[in-house]
């Protein structure tokens, strides 16, 4: 069953590895399908065959192996089937398989699905990370998770903080399709930081039940994340105080608070 449906668009999760989601976008009108961050080709090919789909495009958010590891095999699979395939990826991290290199403000039109995406630069997790926004759906890779955010690898804390603020300014109704099922663990950390947040407590209870039933917690939304995600709430006095107590240093800015929270989460 699709996780989300908007008008004629279906978005389904293909599970990979221990906690990855590879997103498959398709429509009612034809067999065309688009994959986002296919780290594992085998699970994608199984899904494509089962649902009688034709893979027409791949969207890549960043270069980590669990997001691009299946691209080469999927490219070969499409060639064997005689299917034209277009692979999109970030300009700064494009693999040798990318046909179209993208940067902030670019737009792509997936004509087979009648969908257009705007590209957002969201560095921090990696230096060249991008996200795709279309029809109020945000495919954000490892930048923003429900109740959390990605680790900082070759980007900077300042970049990631800026990227998260950029995403938080999107429309509240925007649905967030991140690439991992990290929500419950993220909420455990969020509760340690933002102990008395009633919205967070209620959401944690809902997510715990969903995970006990082995149900996905994604997509989230910008509206939800602005209420429960501590990394989007570094302006909040209670969160600043928690960061102060953890680090034993004054929180002189939202960036300072964010940096402490991310470092705290690394060892939580």
Feature tags:
single chain, 268 residues, alpha/beta, Metallo-beta-lactamase, Chain A, 7-stranded mixed beta sheet, 6-stranded mixed beta sheet, 26% strand, globular
Number of distinct beta strands = 15
Average pLDDT, to the nearest integer? 95
Q: What composes the largest sheet?
A: 7 strands, mixed
- CATH architectural label: 4-Layer Sandwich
Residue stretches low in confidence (pLDDT < 50, at least 5 long) are: none
Which class do the helix and strand fractions yield? alpha/beta
What's the alpha carbon Rg, rounded to whole Å? 19 Å
Strand order, sheet with most strands: 1-2-3-4-5-6-7
Query: CATH-wise, what's the superfamily?
Result: Ribonuclease Z/Hydroxyacylglutathione hydrolase-like
**CATH topology call:** Metallo-beta-lactamase, Chain A
Count structural domains.
1
Q: How far is it from the N-terminal to the C-terminal residue, by CA? A: 34 Å
- Order of SSEs: EEEEHEHHEEEEEEEEHEHHEHHH
Oligomer: single chain
């Amino acid at each position: 069953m699709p996780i989300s449906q908007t008008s004629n668009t279906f978005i389904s999760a293909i599970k990979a590895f221990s906690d990855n989601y590879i997103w498959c976008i398709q429509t009612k009108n034809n067999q065309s399908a688009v994959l986002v961050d296919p780290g594992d080709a085998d699970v994608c090919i199984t899904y494509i065959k089962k649902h009688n789909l034709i893979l027409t495009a791949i969207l890549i958010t960043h270069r980590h192996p669990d997001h691009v590891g299946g691209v080469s095999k999927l490219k070969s699979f499409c060639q064997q089937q005689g299917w034209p395939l277009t692979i999109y990826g970030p300009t700064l991290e494009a693999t040798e398989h990318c046909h179209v290199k993208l940067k902030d403000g670019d737009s792509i039109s997936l004509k087979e699905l009648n969908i257009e995406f705007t590209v957002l630069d969201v560095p921090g997790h990696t230096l060249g990370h991008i996200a795709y926004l279309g029809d109020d759906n945000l495919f954000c890779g490892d930048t923003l998770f429900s109740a959390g955010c990605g680790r900082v690898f070759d980007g900077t804390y300042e970049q990631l903080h800026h990227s998260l603020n950029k995403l938080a300014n999107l429309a509240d109704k925007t649905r967030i399709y991140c690439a991992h099922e990290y929500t419950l663990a993220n909420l455990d950390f969020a509760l340690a930081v933002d102990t008395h947040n009633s919205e967070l407590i209620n959401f944690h209870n809902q997510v715990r039940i969903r995970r006990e039933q082995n149900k996905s917690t994604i997509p989230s939304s910008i509206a939800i994340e602005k209420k429960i995600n501590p990394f989007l709430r570094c302006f909040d006095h209670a969160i600043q105080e928690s960061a102060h107590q953890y680090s034993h240093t004054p929180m002189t800015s939202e960036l300072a608070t964010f940096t402490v929270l991310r470092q705290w989460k690394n060892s939580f």
